[in-house]
Amino acid sequence: MKERIGYGAWVVGVAQFFVVHGIVESAWARPAYSWARNNISDLGNVHCGLRTWPEARYICSPEHGLMNGSFIALGVLLVVGLVLTRGAGGTGGVGEADGFSGAGGVGGIGGGVPWLGGRVAALARMLLVSGGVGFVLIGLAPTDVHKGLHVVGAALIMGTGNAGLVLAGFGLADRVPRPLRRATGLLGVVALLAFGLFLSGHYLGLGMGGMERVAAYPLLLWVTALGLWGVVLRAGRTRAAVAEVRAGGDRVGPGSAGG
Is 49 helix (H, G, I), strand (E, B) or coil? Predict the structure, then answer.
């Protein structure tokens, strides 16, 4: 059960982030907020004014408090999801392709733990947790309030967080669909490359904000995909298993106990 709560935390965290992003973006003062021209965290800047780092642009976000709260909520829910889906010792792998960990329920009905055991999976989770901490930091420290701490938060998201995504491609259990496992590492590699291009000022026509999103959003895409897999497919298989158990009881019949 706790694994499903963890999966749900990921889905809710990312969903609320993009909903709030849209609300705060719509309240942006002129000139209009641009996904290509503006950083994601420009929405959380407390003061209005011209900014010159890393690119010149005018920033004025009336609903910055809402955005910073969303950053913090996203980070907390990412960490909660990682803690709740790690399982007891990160068990999982060959022989558990049905997706159930065998813990918490009759006949092994429970939320599937997505991780293999071992150091690779443990390190992947640790690095991914750092990405969640990064979101909390950028929410607590807007760029125009505490630039140094904000930069640390961004580095945790796009640096160590994405490195964790690469390792997660090798640390996910066999019960996770193969396409998702393969996409995990690929997303991490793309995000790390984009982070390098962002830092070097090579935006490849996407703009500063566009390249930053290529570096930051793969992590959110991954937790959403894995979260939906855990919530929707695990719930569906649990219902099927419960129905099978009930059907078996019906076949026995009420009079069979008396011989």
Answer: strand
* Length of the chain (residues): 259
pLDDT tens column, 68-119? 999 999 999 999 999 999 875 444 443 343 333 333 333 333 347 899 989 9
Higher pLDDT, 97 or 244: 244
Partnered with residue 49 across adjacent β-strands are 59
Please indicate whether residue 92 or residue 39 has the higher confidence score (pLDDT): 39
95-108 CB burial, b ≥16 within 10 A, e <16: ebeebbbebeeeee
Q: Cis (ω within 30 of 0) for the bond into 31?
A: yes
Task: Provide DSSP, 87-130.
Answer: TTTS---TT-TTS--S-SSGGG-SPPP-B-SSHHHHHHHHHHHH
Which residue, among 230, 11, 227, has the nearest Cα to 101 in the 3D structure?
Answer: 230
* Cα separation, 175 vs 112, whole angstroms: 8
pLDDT tens per residue across span 126-145: 999 999 999 999 999 999 99
The DSSP string of 7-41 is: HHHHHHHHHHHHHHHHHHHHTPPSSPP-TTTS-GG
